UniProtKB/TrEMBL annotation:
Residues 513-793 form the ERAP1-like C-terminal domain. InterPro entries: Aminopeptidase_N-like_N, Aminopeptidase_N-like_N_sf, ERAP1-like_C_dom, Pept_M1_aminopeptidase, Peptidase_M1, Peptidase_M1_aminopeptidases, Peptidase_M1_dom, Peptidase_M4/M1_CTD_sf. Its cofactor is Zn(2+). PANTHER family: PROTEASE M1 ZINC METALLOPROTEASE, PUROMYCIN-SENSITIVE AMINOPEPTIDASE-RELATED. Transmembrane segments: none annotated. This is Aminopeptidase N. CDD domains: M1_APN. Belongs to the peptidase M1 family. It catalyses: Release of an N-terminal amino acid, Xaa-|-Yaa- from a peptide, amide or arylamide. Xaa is preferably Ala, but may be most amino acids including Pro (slow action). When a terminal hydrophobic residue is followed by a prolyl residue, the two may be released as an intact Xaa-Pro dipeptide. Signal peptide: none annotated. Keywords: Aminopeptidase, Hydrolase, Metal-binding, Metalloprotease, Protease, Zinc. One of its GO terms (molecular function) is alanyl aminopeptidase activity. The gene is pepN.
Amino acid sequence: MTVASLTRPEAEERAALLAVSRYDIDVDLTGLLDGEVWEATSTVQFTCHRPGADTFADAVGEVVSASLNGVDLDPATVEAGRLPLSGLAAENTLVVRLRQTDVTSSAGILRTVDPSDGEVYVWTSLECNDARRLWACFDQPDLKAPHRFTVRSPEAWTVLSNMRPETVGEPSDGTRRWSFPDTPPLSTYVVVVNAGPFHRVEGRRGDHDLALHCRQSLRGSLDRDAGWLLDLTGNGLAFFGDKFGQPFPEAHYDQVFVPNMGGAMENWGCVTWGDGYLFRTPPTHAQRSQTAITLLHEMAHMWFGDLVTMRWWDDLWLNEAFASWASTWAAAEATDFLDAWAEFLVGRKLDAYRTDMGPATHPIRSDVLDVESALANFDAITYSKGQSVLHQLMAFVGEDAFTRGLQDYFATHAWGNTRLRDLIDAVSNASGRDLEAWTIDWLDRAGTDTVAVEVTTAGAVVTVTSPDDAPPRPHRIDIGSYGADGALLRRTPVETVGTRTPVTGLPDGALHLPNDTDLTFASVGGGGDVRALLRTAGGLPDATARAVAVATSLDLLRKGEIAAADMLDCVLGVLAVEKNPALIEPFIAQARDAAEMWTPADQVDAARARVADLALTLSREEELRRPALQVLASCATTSDHDRALAEAAAEDVDLSWRFAVRRSERGDLPDGTVEELLARDPDPDRSARAVAVTAARPDEAAKAEAWEELFVRRSVQAGHPTFAVARAFWRPGQAELCAPWADRYLEEMRAVRGGLLSMLSLVRGMFPLVADEGFADRARAAATEPGLDPTVRNQLLTGADTLSRMIRARRGGA
């Protein structure tokens, strides 16, 4: 079936015509235990403001039967996933029985069989408009309504939905019926049905009953981490309830870890995660931090997205940027991850800078004509640049005023739909600042400003240059002034106006670092001061300042203003003295990437050895041992490296797999290693680790085998496993071998389909960053082809731009 993408005019017309009173959805899961059939009957009660008018319901699947106000409708009239509805009454009841057999592509639903025990699990994830694949509905965010689910399932399964069940029937003929009470008024994309023989861990924190669920084969990982996950959940609910002026209104909060989901989804009261977040070995600090940020991101959506929902997808950026900003805010204020803002800078924010300097950049606020176009905006501009801009807005108006504005916003618009203007007005009223020009400057223009400090005998000036012809944006920043010994002398707050803003009160110092506390989204410029920053970054006393220094070095590398060796000098200099585990993991990962992907080919081995030597040194400190060994495993080059890894890997199967990938890449993996690791590893998804080992091997047959698993069999789980296989596939030193596969990637991108989260893993992870300039040109050409998925188009443009910058660096350009 060719499925139509809902346009904004169509959505506006339907929202003006209809109001949905409620959904009653009866789901039958029994066809999924041994087969691939989902069935659901939805009863939709709705009013029509112009009786006699016509419209359509969304139904993508086999419509078995349908009736409107008791009159049968012909299922054959369904076209492009739309069921015509004619002659509407003032009060209407639509009943549709729908069957879906596409339950393996992750388009709205995924049925998986655990390879270790044969148990079947089912999850749904409906953003942006995949509810229509599972039941007939009006699938747009501004037609909110209560949903009531009744689910028939195999007897041994647990069924989870937005609400806790009010009744669970006694077994009958091997099945059981679950009845759930009404949800609050929700958009169609944040309701959920998950099912399977889940392992469950419960706990009460504050006023909420919490529960965590996973498949039986991962119960050991969940039991190990359940305590801190429950604590983190309780802390987050308390923090957001206080800061947003209203507690989460449900008495429960459930989180479900499911197979083969490349992210997480903010379903009201029942968040669904990919169970890659249940690490199979004890997580490092960075892994725990990543999990905490994801948990708090989805939780923030309970308020911003679920309670108050965007009217249309042109405000998708705000939905996601707000949750991203709030998660980092909460992590820094209410958890042990106190350096969350520094971690954000050297992680996700760097991706936003990368995207913003390339051809796929776009204003944060964009004109979204249809839902398919909205999917293209699930990128670093939407998430991380948007998060940075909200962080800048809070600095611009002050945290107290920003918080008061949020509280007024949630109180005024609870259970409704809004536009950006509603939030900006609330913050403007709370702060007393006119934000209209600020909003245009920051949200309607692409590109990254550059801030610098000039100090002359005439005084100090902050300069701001813009990448376009418009005047620079206003920036609220701090200038950090440092002595020759790296000691902080003073931080001076500045609010820039135009291109040159005089600054008074700067002390005499060896370095004046603009945006020292990373309050804004801007590159750091300044010539000699920047060079001094790179040389002395390790001596800066503040985690965020050191992160600014490392981020600046990568920014300059991407722009071609320094060589990869210069960037390595900066980050390795920081790592030589860095003691903060929150920064060491991302810093050393940046160093590894610079050595492998940005360094001239004849210097890669030496650069890798520098990173590996430092990783070996860091591994001798207990708190840093596991992350340092993980990096060492990916770039080991000497017998000393190998001996240290062999010793550590004897008790660490995760490290063993990582070292096996490196040895496979080098061509010295002993026969039988993979078989021994498969027998030793209890992970039910260990087969993906074996695919990564195969992918790294420098021969044609191995590449073909790994490609088959990724693109044909789709056997590699979305998220972390896909990215791991992709990193193993495209290795420096294998460019000639991989060249034909780069063009195969373009062919796959022309046809790639599936759920949003799984598709993003393949599209982003498998871009061939070891290819040549000819491929970069072909990728740019492919991005212009009509009919190409918008998400794929943006990734091709961003990937080609990054590849071209890498090639310039590999040629020795600086």
